[in-house]
Every structure is written in C-alpha cells, then in structure tokens.
Write a structure and sequence with these properties.
The protein contains 17 helices and 13 strands. Helix 10 packs across helix 17 and helix 16 runs antiparallel to helix 17. 54% of the residues are buried. The chain starts with 9 loop residues before the first helix and ends with a helix. The strands form 3 sheets. Strands 1, 2, 3, 6, 11, 12 and 13 form a 7-stranded mixed sheet that branches. It has a 4-stranded mixed sheet with strand order 8-9-7-10. Strands 4-5 form a two-stranded antiparallel sheet. By secondary structure, it is an alpha/beta fold. The protein folds into 2 domains: 216 residues, D-Maltodextrin-Binding Protein, domain 2; 198 residues, D-Maltodextrin-Binding Protein, domain 2 (3-Layer(aba) Sandwich), CATH 3.40.190.10. The protein is globular, with a radius of gyration of 21 Å.
Length: 430
C-alpha cells in the first residue's frame, strides 16, 4: 500500500484517459487491501449456464441492473441471475460470511478498505489477473482491486465523496462562487440559515453515509495524506491537535444541520435536500440518482467545506474507486460468473450503468450523457484526494474514529469524543 495518494488534476486525467470530451477519470493509487495476501485461484472454465447470485448494496441501481441483466440473459440462454441486495451498512457487516458460505454472491462486490482487505484475506476473490476483461479498465483506477500482486477485484465506480450541492439554491442566494476557506464556509452557512435554509442535511443515524463528511474535513487538516493509516498504526492519535481541530470544527457545524441530525436516517436526509430545504447533502455524488428519484429538478454539483484558510488549502475534495466486482472462489459456476463480469465491463454496457445511475465508472471508452455526470465533470480538473476514510483496515478502529465526529454533531464535546475514540484504538492495538 502506498502511504500517499496523489491529488487528481487535469494533466493527470488527460494522461489516464484517451477519450476526449465526455470521458472522465480520476487518479488513484493502491489503497488499503492492495497488498493483502489470500488471493484465490484462477477462474475455472466451463459452459455458460445455470443460476447466479449478484450480491451488492446498491438498491438504487436495481432497475438499471435489471435491464443489463435482461440483455445478458437474452444472449445467454439457460442463465438466470438474481440480485441479492443489502443496505450498505448491513452489507459491510454480513457480506463476507454470506459470500464465504456461498449463500449469496457468485458475483459479488466489496467496499474499498476493510471489507475488501478481509475478503482478500479470506480467499474469496478468484484471480482475474490474466483475464481479458481487465483490459477494459483504466489501469490506474483499478489499483485498489489488487491483492498480493494479483488483480483480484475490479473497482467499477468512480465517485466523489463530498457533499452534493443545490446549485440553483446557492446561486439564488449569492453563492455562485463557493467559499474556499473555513471562515467563508461558516459565513455562507450563517447567511443561508438566516434565510430559513438548512445549510447541510446530515444523515447522522446512518454510519456509512454520515461518515463520508470526514473525508473532506480531514483532507487539509491532517499532517499527511495517510492520516488514518497512521492512527491505526499508532503513529498518530485521535487526540492529536489536527484531529481535535477537526472535531472542534464539527462542533461549529451544529447550528447548520437539521434538527436531530445525529438521529436522521439516510432517506430522510435525502428528502430534506431533494425538497430544497437544505443547500448541501453531506454524502457524495453517488446520491445524485436517489435525489433525482425524489423529483428534484435543480442543478446539482459537489462541494466540500474547506477547513483551512484559502492559501493553506491543498485539496478541494475527495474521490474514491469502489463497488469492487469479484468472482467467488466458492461458486461452482465461475465461467458464467466471469461472463457476467465481462458483460458489465463492456464500455457500452458500462455506459448504460453510468448514465442510468449517475455513477462515473472506471472503464475506458465510456461516454456520459447524464446531466449530473456532466455537471460534476469539472471536478476532474481539481486537486482531489483518494478518500481517506477507507485507509482503515480495522472496522472497530474506523467506527471509533468516525463515530467521534458524529457524536460531536450530536452534542458530545470534541475532547471527550477524541479521548473515547483513542481508548478504542488503543484497545484494538493491544
């Protein structure tokens, strides 16, 4: 695993992507899990047929994937595929055991970070290194699917893990130029609140989605880009000045989130944003399609609070590669599972997925026509950090550090939250 993650900028984007115009890309180097051992054997050959389970957490993608599956079945008689979908938090907690036992997931997905690392160590991913499907992907964007030098999984999605913004609402109230400093951000929030607008809709009751804000909050505060790797190793602590500063800034956000933010689930937070009661939704670009499904018709973009002065800013936001596709070593139908992964990885099919779900993808040659994907395209020229929250490989440590921020939003003092988080980190490191 590399300990630093280079920012993404236009020069790097042009180096990585060969399609002009609508093509999009982000630079990413191997993250946690990329050096894990435990990779499985090569995919076994055989006839295409039989039943498959496709296990993932993206319920909002079901309809688009149903269409993609229907096309695959039309070309492959005798195959049936069901989608086994769990909410992301449940999937994080239970998928490893269910996939390991082959209860679900002939084809399965993994979140970047601890889940991918654990699944690699458990030997669940068949080795795709020498399969031709790998050639469909932009190499730099699938580095987080490697383990032990092998290409075990194929990260399918490229997302920006920074808040969604209602551009129409912000423009209307004088913020066509968004602030690039902490004081400027707080001033914007104060002015929006004075006009009866909630600056930020925060899904505090959903740990997976509430945790996304931490990416942007630490990206400029931390002394190094591998800040969470170093908290886990013991080199940094949750009680260090830089993280305590981050928690103190969370405390400053309390007046600018909706009432009972720490108790708000993901869907109600989406609704607050979709109904234009809030200017920002503190999740990520992956929520754009869900917001559109709630009849939102305003222009959207992504934007994150800058926690430092403008001249101290290093990164403008965070990106991630995730939804890591894998062929299960435990399935007795690997040939069909691989064929389905190849189908998903076809540029035309991947374009159907991308434009139907408002998700950028990591596959070369895809063209985007979705309004939100095109609106977010300028972020490809900005300097963004590979999402740091997925540097953790220990789920308990990750939860402790991220939950400290959520607890501060709910009223806990930054000092108390930091000390409790560090206590759990110390326990896990014994």
């Amino acid at each position: 695993m590399s300990n630093t993650h280079p920012g993404m900028n236009r020069r790097r984007a042009l180096q990585l992507f060969g399609v002009a115009g609508l093509g999009t890309v982000a630079a990413a180097c191997a993250g946690p899990g990329s050096t894990a051992s435990g990779g499985g054997s090569k995919v076994e050959g055989g006839d295409i047929g039989g039943e498959l389970s496709f296990a993932h957490w993206r319920a909002e993608d079901k309809a688009v994937l149903d269409k993609i599956i229907k096309d695959f079945l039309a070309a492959n008689k005798g195959v049936s595929i069901r989608q086994d979908i769990s909410p992301s938090t449940d999937y994080q907690a239970t998928a490893l055991q269910r996939v390991k036992d082959a209860a679900i997931g002939d084809v399965f997905t993994a979140l970047r970070g601890p889940q991918f690392s654990d699944m690699v160590k458990a030997g669940l991913f068949a080795d795709l290194t020498n399969e031709s499907v790998v050639d469909n992907y932009i190499p730099e964007l699938i580095a987080d699917g490697k383990g032990g030098g092998k290409q075990l999984g194929l990260p399918y999605q490229l997302v920006f893990l920074i808040p969604l913004a209602n551009r129409d609402l912000l423009d209307k109230h004088g913020f066509s130029e968004l602030p690039l400093s902490w004081d400027g951000f707080l001033d914007m929030c104060d002015k929006l609140k004075s006009k009866g607008i909630t600056p930020m809709a925060f899904p505090g009751a959903d740990a997976g989605n509430a945790g996304q804000l931490i990416n942007g909050m630490v990206m400029n505060n931390a002394p190094s880009d591998d800040m969470f790797t170093k908290i886990e190793s013991g080199e940094y602590k949750a009680t260090d000045d830089w993280y305590l500063k981050t928690l103190e800034q969370y405390a400053q956000l309390r007046p600018y989130v909706q009432p009972n933010a720490a108790g708000t689930a993901h869907e109600p937070a989406q609704q607050i944003f979709a109904s234009e009661q809030a200017a920002l939704l503190t999740t990520g670009s992956y929520d754009a399609a869900s917001v559109r499904a709630l009849d939102a018709d305003f222009a959207m973009d992504v934007f994150t609070p800058i926690t430092v002065a403008k001249n101290e800013m290093k990164y403008e936001g965070c990106h991630n590669t995730t939804f890591i596709l894998g062929v299960n070593t435990a399935t007795d139908n690997q040939a069909t599972a691989l064929a389905f992964v190849e189908h998903l990885s076809d540029p035309e099919v991947a374009g159907t997925y991308a434009n139907g779900t408002a998700q950028h993808v990591t596959i070369d040659g895809v063209e985007y026509d979705d309004r939100d994907l095109k609106a977010i395209e300028p972020w490809l020229s900005k300097n963004t950090l590979l999402a740091p929250r997925y540097q953790f490989t220990d789920l308990d440590i990750a939860a402790a550090v991220e939950n400290a921020a959520i607890e501060v939003i709910g009223g806990t003092s930054p000092e108390q939250a930091a000390e409790e988080a560090q206590r759990i980190v110390d326990q896990r490191r014994k």
